[in-house]
Design goal:
Blueprint: H1 2-48, E1 58-65, E2 70-75, H2 87-98, E3 104-105, E4 108-109, E5 133-134, E6 139-140, H3 141-150, H4 154-166, H5 175-188, H6 212-224, H7 226-235, E7 259-265, E8 268-276, E9 282-290, H8 295-310
Antiparallel strand pairs: 1-2, 1-9, 3-6, 4-5, 7-8, 8-9
Length: about 300
Amino acid sequence: MQIYNFFSIFAADMKKKTLLIAFFTGIALALHAEGAWKERTTAALDSLLTDSLFESTQVALAVWDLTDDSLLYAIGYRQRMRPASCQKIITAVTALKALGADFQYRPYVKEAGWGWCWDDKISQPKSPGAPLLSETELQRVDEVMLPMLKESDNLLAESMFQQLADRSGKRGAGRREAAAEVERLMRELSLEPKDYLIADGSGLSLYDYVTVELLVKVLRYAWQQETVREPFLQALPIAGVDGTLEKRMKETPAEDNVRAKTGTVEGIVSLAGYCISSEGHELCFAIINQGIVRARSGRDFQDRVCIALTQ
């Protein structure tokens, strides 16, 4: 009986040890796989940045791992650059935070923005004094946001920016009051407003200056806020599917995966949004290419970044 008990205890003890070994081996393998994925992704991005394109142009790139809530990759993280239409991300998220998706207003823009660059898909008013945008029907913020982000509608972005200004209650409220709402969001993200310049809501202005740090932190904020996340995600273009990304990244791992806002003005190409890695990690990213002669070269680089993040 004593011998039987000894072997029973020994067998049970060995079983426990085997289970513990298997458990910790599983953890080690999982950590190794995750580490390998991050190393592989970092190496792929490093390789893309050796392109001869960057001998004569500037780039800022940031990738935030939303699953681990940590910065995965960054270059030019705090370099101030013009965002082009990625400025609409800041306008949209600020409006969802300050006004809410259900807030209704009549989209209206009377005057051109401060420092507008008119070559970016926008027409000046047909006659002096005529409104740039004048709608009579009330529309919800999330309804306005859909064409504003999917199709990069500049005037709708400016109408939303004006609503942020009007929230101040000041007579004749304009850019300064709207920018103050954006600055409140910046402070909530532990960023210093004086490090940026918010000139308009659309990104047409020559005077807008942001960083990829600001963009990924705004994207992270939107992801974490239930009232912001869904309407914002629904309005972003989807790679290879719709909006301004309809024809990009087709037949790649990024197709129907990347949801992001595009941006293009003379010399600037930008892209910022979300994707899911091959390991199932939710990521947000921001890319600004500056000093670009041909927009296509910037877009091709950005597509390759998105493919590297998703394969």
